[in-house]
């Protein structure tokens, strides 16, 4: 089954080039993104909130104009393989997710999704074949309205130099940058 305007093989090669290898989760994500897009034919400007940080965000970035960089895709890691696509002005849209009951018809696919086997024990050729044959038939979709907190873009606002480190930072966070306030994901090593 095709993924939007791409054959399965074409999308598999795109995924490999972008992601480093054609991850099953990215291929599944392609079907999810395309299902959501078909449900929103008249919406010109949409945004996406994905509920996992694994693979699915890459499918969104490959198949839409939504990316982490332009802030039209946000990751809210709830640990679920689902995406919410919505009109950026009204918040109305759809949530697409994997339906485990539908997935049971595809044993290798189900086993992969439910983490029943280690990657080494999976039959990769069968998994890809089942993934392609199943297409979007293993998905479900529900209408949603996104929470107001996820609508619109937060603009950075004024910028100043941090009095401690001397780097530019948005002043909305306080009198010093968030790194110097203790939120840095690193510590500086003295030479």
What does this structure look like?
The longest helix is centred in the N-terminal third of the chain and has 16 residues, at 24-39. The protein has helices spanning 8-19, 24-39, 56-63, 100-103, 107-113, 124-134, 179-183, and strands at 46-50, 73-75, 82-87, 92-98, 139-145, 159-161, 168-170. The termini are far apart. The strands form two sheets. Strands 2-1-3-4-5 form a five-stranded mixed β-sheet. A two-stranded antiparallel sheet has the order 6-7. By secondary structure, it is an alpha+beta fold. Helix content is 33%, strand content 18%.
Structural class: alpha+beta
Strand line-up across the major sheet: 2-1-3-4-5
Average pLDDT metric: 93
| Uncertain runs | none
The SSE order reads HHEHEEEHHHEEEH
Q: Name the beta content range.
A: 15-25%
Which percent range fits the helix content? 25-40%
Task: Report the C-alpha radius of gyration, rounded.
Answer: 20 Å
* Net shape: globular
CATH topology of the largest domain: 60s Ribosomal Protein L30, Chain: A
Under the CATH scheme, the architecture of the largest domain is 2-Layer Sandwich
Number of domains: 2
The first-to-last residue Cα distance is: 56 Å
CATH top level of the largest domain is Alpha Beta
By DSSP, the count of extended strands is 7
Give a short account of the largest sheet.
5 strands, mixed
Helices, by number, come to: 7
